[in-house]
Amino acid sequence: MTPVAVEVQGVSKRFRLYHEKYTSLKEKVIHAGRVPHEDLWALRDVSFEVPEGETIGILGRNGSGKSTLLKCVCGILQPTAGQVVVRGKLAGLLELGAGFQQELSGRENIYLNGSMLGFSKRDVDRMFDDIVEFAELGQFIDNQVKYYSSGMYVRLGFAVAVNVDPDVLVIDEVLAVGDERFQRKCLDRVKQFQREGRTILFVSHAPDLVRSICDRAVVLSDGEMVGVGAPGEAIRLFRERLLEAGDALGASEAAAALGAATEDVAGEHAAEGLAYPDPQVTAGVPGATAGSVSRLRLAPQDSRPVRFTDVTCELPAESGRRYVLPGEPVTVRAAFESVRPVVGAVFQLELRGDGGTGLFRTDSEILGLTCDLAPGPGTFEFRLEAVPLLDGAYDVNLGVQTARGLSDWREPACTFEVMNPGRSTGVVAVAVRAALVANGGLVVGTSGTVAS
Amino acid sequence: MAVEAPAEPPDARSAGVTSVLDRAGSVATRPKATRVVSSETRVWARLREVWRSRELLVYLVRTEIKVKYKNSFLGLLWSMISPALTLAVYTLVFGVVLHNGMPDFVLYLFAGILLFNLFSTGIVTATGVVVNNAGLVKKVSFPREILALAAVGSAGVFFFFQACVMVIFMLFLHWAPAWSLLYLVVVGLVPTLVLACAFGILLAAINVYMRDTFHLVTVLVGSAWFWACPIVYSYQTTVASRLAVHHLTWMYFLNPLAILVMTFQRVLYGRLTPPATYAPHPALHVLPHWPVSTYVWGDGVVLAIALVLFYVAMVVFGRLAGNFAEEL
Predict the structure, then answer these.
(1) Minimal CA–CA distance to A299: which of A236, A384, A348?
(2) How far is B129 from chain A (nearest CA, A)?
(3) Domain count of the fold of chain B
(4) Is A110 in the B-facing interface, judged by CB distances under 8 Å?
(5) SS3 A151
(6) Closest Cα partner for A395 from A236, A242, A277, A274?
(7) Which candidate from B24, B28, B138 shows the least CB-CB separation from A76?
(8) Which end of chain A is more exposed for a tag (fewer CB within 10 A), N or C?
């Protein structure tokens, strides 16, 4: 059993929101300690464990308590109740360049920051060259950091945090900075950390990033932990929470329109026990029936004008295979239900490969299709004429958007598998022809086409 | 245009991995310290944390000093110039104009100011230190007590420089300290430092919640406390007899700094056994004729009080520190 690196045990954090802040003695005396305030629970009884070597993402809307949680883990804030146990050296990157002294040079700041993270001068000496190289600061290392550009500042901050050799790295929204090349470098380093068995806690607004680098993710909503599970699972949960928040306006309206029908659906939903933090709601076993690779029973949602009831990936039925060959068509068929007339619904399709890499994204609007939906059930179809992909399982995500916002989002809506009979590797099936055009003064014949 | 550098070749990357692992040992197997973040952390545990972060203390002291004198032309020299100016003014007013008759008054003054400056600079800097480093406190985790300790530490560095100036003064005036009592410097210094740390930690925490504290401390320490210590005047020649008449001597020594300052004066200013060639030095009358043990005992009592105060300060600080990040 892997030892636990970070243990969050029933952590709650209360903030006092003062309507006005009284910090001078006079004001305190005048108000005699009775400063009006509201309690705000930024975290409520959050518990989870992070085994050593795991990368865990923390997802949540703004104000859901993500940063508070990280600050508690780092020890910047003390939880009001509960505790956090951290095994090993922790480096936190809550804000890049935090802890830099404007007046000091980059060099001095590296030592200061290093010692703040708990490393001795000798440790930092050893890491110093790596840090400077990683930060790409060159001769600017001896300039005062107040003269640094924001990019330099950020690079130095990240370079210190990832080079100081922590056991646990805590990153808060900081990978989104720097240019693309530096971002990739940071990601490479994060992946190297993962290979080395270090533990990473990672907060991001970007679900793609969480999907690609995290082993698990925690979803927070209004300070409460809604679920923890595989990234795909957590992201679905997170998106649902976003939906709920975004659609709060239309909810009452929709409920009225739904009438008794909703009651039935809701009842059915409850009976099936498809509660949301249910890890079982993932793509089913491939190929339950010929032609239909995977099937997902979707939990009915009320209060949204359009929702999917069933999504299937249909493979060429005649083949009888449970996978497609590169270049074969796949049809994504979605049964949906519209509770009221919707003008200008947009169906969205997303194709994701191994590790959540976004491969393809389109929607009905881009494709020039206008969908005005009448109330009642319906079926929508995306027909992928040819799937130019190589070996792997691919997720299809499906969404439908109305003028009010995202009305439903299924992730993964279904999956399909591609088997590549050829020996080329990679992701994309590129039709390719190899030719030795000339050799030794002779024109040589071409070889056959390699269909990847 | 080759903007996008291709991914490093695999061998180079794996070399990078091994180098990191080499210097770290295996990440999975190396020993790891466990840290618990909760609202209840014991004073001893926190002191251990502080001890572990002692190197940070050194860096913070350095930073404090560097930042203070960065971009000033004379830099660190100011830490010597400002007490020298104070000395000049007091010597002029009390020694020359009011003619208090103390031999080499400037050294008497210096001995007292040296210690008092350590204490007052330490406390005043420490009081504002958490608020001034709000950016750090809100974003980086480290034992916050270190900030207050660093403030006292930086005062300690200034103390060192000023002590050097005093040595120069003594050489210049051909004035030797009581060599055999030189250890009293340490005996006086240690309680002063502990006391400064205790007050510093306490006030730094309180100042986060009540910003008046800083102004109050500046005024109280800078003026009231200064005059409560026998620095400019002599205890023996001015206040001792008057206090004794009203049996109030004990009240004077409620000020823990009084005995500490006098200890310093005893070593650096007054000698018990002047060289045979000298007539008994008139300076001796400026100081009380106490045996050395009185100073040692007095300083010991102050040290004990300071330690208790330090513990109290740590407890209070621990209570208040949890909310620093939100209060700033």
Answers:
(1) A236
(2) 14
(3) 1
(4) no
(5) helix
(6) A236
(7) B138
(8) N
Say which residue the tokens 């796949």 belong to.
Answer: A330
Query: Could you list the residue range(s) of the whole structural domain that residue B84 is in?
Result: 52-327
* Contacting residues for B63 by C-beta, under 8 A, at least 6 apart: A101, A104, A108, A112, B150
From chain B, the residues in CB contact with A197 under 8 A are 26-28
**CA–CA separation, B215 vs B220, rounded Å?**
9
Contact A92 B321 (CB under 8 A): no
Q: What is the pLDDT of residues B156-197, one digit of tens each?
A: 999 998 998 889 888 888 888 888 888 989 999 999 999 999
**What structural domains and CATH numbers belong to chain A?**
4-235 (3.40.50.300), 247-418 (2.70.50.60)
Length of chain B: 328
Helix boundaries (H) for A80-179: 106-116, 121-135, 150-163
**Which residues are bridge partners to A9 per DSSP?**
A83
- What number is the ipTM of this complex? 0.72
Chain B residues with beta carbon closer than 8 angstroms to that of A31: none
pLDDT digits (tens, 9 = 90+) for A377-427: 999 999 988 888 887 778 888 988 887 777 888 877 888 888 777 777 778
Asked, for residue B171, whether it belongs to a domain, the answer is yes
Phi, psi of A95 (to 5 degrees): -150, 130
Give the nearest chain A residue to B38 (CA atoms): A83
- In angstroms, the CA B176 to CA A374 distance is 104
List chain A residues with CB under 8 Å of B37.
Answer: 72-75, 78-79, 83-86
| Chain B CB contacts of A23 below 8 Å | 209-211
Which 3-state string (H, E, C) describes B144-170? CHHHHHHHHHHHHHHHHHHHHHHHHHH
Give the best residue of A76, A111, A128 to mutate against chain B (max B CB count within 10 A).
Answer: A76
Peptide bond into B230 cis (omega under 30): no
Beta strands A330-338 and A292-297 are: unpaired
pTM of the full structure? 0.68
From residue B261, give the alpha-carbon distance in Å to each of A346, B35, B225: 82, 41, 12
Q: Do A112 and B59 touch (CB under 8 A)?
A: yes
pLDDT (mean) for B76-96: 84
- Amino acid identity, residue B15? A
* B33, part of any domain: no
Instruction: Tokens for B14, please give them.
Output: 């794996």
Say whether residue A181 is in contact with chain B using an 8 A CB cutoff: yes
Is the CB of residue A341 less than 8 Å from the CB of residue A375?
Answer: yes
User: Which helix (H) or strand (E) covers residue A9, if one does?
Assistant: strand A4-18
Residue type for position B178:
A
- Top-confidence residue, A363 or A251: A363
C-alpha A409/C-alpha A307 separation (Å) is 8
Q: Specify if B23 maps to a domain.
A: no
